[in-house]
Design brief:
Order of helices and strands of chain A: EHEEHEHEHEEHEEEHEEHEEHH
Largest sheet of chain A: 7 strands, parallel
Helix content of chain A: 25-40%
Number of strands of chain A: 14
Oligomer: homodimer
CATH topology of the largest domain in chain A: Rossmann fold
Distance between the termini of chain A: 44 Å
Strand order of the largest sheet of chain A: 3-2-1-4-5-6-11
């Protein structure tokens, strides 16, 4: 299959590209390189076509659809916290960009889409672990709103224009080439000051973590094995890890002695942060995919890799 | 309270303005008059301030927020079917317009919003009557996507910036001043040809209907009596009416003899039409509001009024 991966030069996208190439697919990547990096794909040389373009330009993305069998739409603003200061980033980079992808697909007759949604569509869910059929969906971050708005556009394209869709609601995805997120932040903080580690909130925030290659492999597995008009799956491990525990793991793995872990307090890291999110991955498990790392395992593995990538010494 | 009603010169909006004025509130209306009409408000003379403006212009809607206590955000593209031909209308008039309303509120410090959402956010629900907590939310029309995208933006503003919100998921709202919808269409068709009535689909489509003054009164009642951060209510009657039955009622009320009712066939009127929608209004009932018309009563009442407004003779 000829796959187009939006955001394919980014964190999750570049791992997905690796696995698609390994599986023998033809891969094109559409990326504006705002957080994606050319060198995340450089090991593929000519095997991957990188189209540098912006999803807010309908003409640009339309030009990338020729001959495509399936679009993996992963491009988005990766920084949830940004929504608290600049309020239209998620709307544009999320919902409006998704509209352009869908419209370009409709115009070119491309019929399958896989979308990187997120557990944040559940907002502060009252049922945990949270299954895919949970309602109501009241996201509390602007990033979450952009993911739910994108999902809704996709299902409307299924209902109106006959598209087929896979909606993947990601846990917190961690791993090599991470460009943001709590582990990445902690390592950068220790790098700047090896004596103390500031944690946003009281550290009791607790979420499901999934290793990035697990995430990419789960997507490919589920697309190959499921065939409804809308296929919606939580992608995550079967447990959670607290921010407090992540801080401890990062300090342990750093080998630094006498690091003071300091909490800014409050039950969430920032306005729009969900204090506790635990995904129910049993639908994915029943479809034959099980994550190879649990949450703490994914965190520790990622800590070790990112410490090598980032380096602890300034 | 000083209320700003977006879409206040429109069908539902103008009835809401009537009831807000009756209840002693101060009312400003923001409307681009694309489907709203100045004469829907003309009986209020100076009691209502009409601001003619477009929600896609952030500056324009920001200028209307001064001194406002609550925004009733009703403005939207009213024609669900339009999404099948022009695909960005609902995104712009729905989701992006809602973003501008929220951003204007944030900039001006306005803290309460009531939003006209719709039963179409439920898509083809597997549970009927459908309660507010139903999931998954997979709307099948672009209009539905714009409503769910708007709801998500609103809850994210609640979670991030401390807004308070009422999400009202409307049944099919019918009544005086109707400017679109199945009854309106049927009367116009009989006006053009009194010998036959064409019905889109097989006529077995079946939905909940609510009379427009019931809808407006329910909103005002619920805002006065509920106080959560996000208050989500289905607004509808306790039953449904089929399109086949609506066609019969319209023919009966027309007094015309020998009208041939003809069905185009298929289980839905157009791509993106939900064949069956039955809302569960028990949360609204429990909060003390009951619709005065059932679905068939609302349809018959509306047929009588619209026949007077539109006239059956060309």
């Amino acid at each position: 299959m000829h796959c187009l991966v939006t955001g394919g030069a980014g964190f999750v996208g570049s791992h997905l590209v690796d696995l698609l190439i390994e599986a023998g697919h033809r891969v094109s990547v559409f990326d504006n390189l705002s957080s994606g990096r050319r060198d995340f794909l450089s090991h593929h040389a000519e095997a991957v076509t990188l189209i540098e373009g912006d999803l807010l330009d309908l003409e640009s993305i339309s030009g990338a659809m020729d001959g495509i069998d399936i679009v993996y739409h992963l491009a988005a603003n990766p920084d949830i916290r940004l929504g608290t200061s600049i309020t239209d980033t998620d709307l544009k980079q999320g919902t409006v960009a998704t509209y352009n992808v869908l419209e370009a697909m409709r115009l070119a007759g491309v019929e399958k889409i896989a979308f990187a949604s997120s557990s944040v569509v559940y907002g502060e869910a009252e049922v945990m672990p949270t299954p895919e059929d949970y309602g109501p969906l009241f996201p509390i971050s602007l990033y979450g709103a952009s993911k739910l708005g994108s999902e809704a556009l996709i299902t409307s394209w299924v209902g109106t224009f006959g598209l087929q869709a896979w909606l993947f609601r990601f846990a917190n995805i961690v791993g090599a080439r991470g460009t943001h997120g709590v582990i990445f932040d902690f390592i950068h903080k220790l790098r700047a000051d090896p004596t103390r580690l500031e944690v946003l909130g009281n550290g009791r925030q607790e979420k499901s973590y999934m290793e990035v290659r697990d995430c990419a492999a789960a997507m490919i597995h589920l697309i190959a094995t499921t065939d409804k008009a809308v296929n919606c799956y939580n992608l995550g491990s079967n447990d959670t890890c607290s921010v407090r525990r992540i801080a401890e793991i990062v300090v342990e793995e750093s080998g630094l002695a006498n690091v003071s872990i300091e909490y800014t307090g409050g039950d969430r890291g920032w306005a729009g942060d969900v204090p506790k999110a635990m995904l129910d991955p049993s639908r994915m498990n029943a479809a034959g995919y099980n994550a190879s790392f649990n949450s703490e395992g994914a965190v520790r593995h990622t800590t070790q890799i990112l410490m090598q990538e980032i380096g602890l010494d300034e």
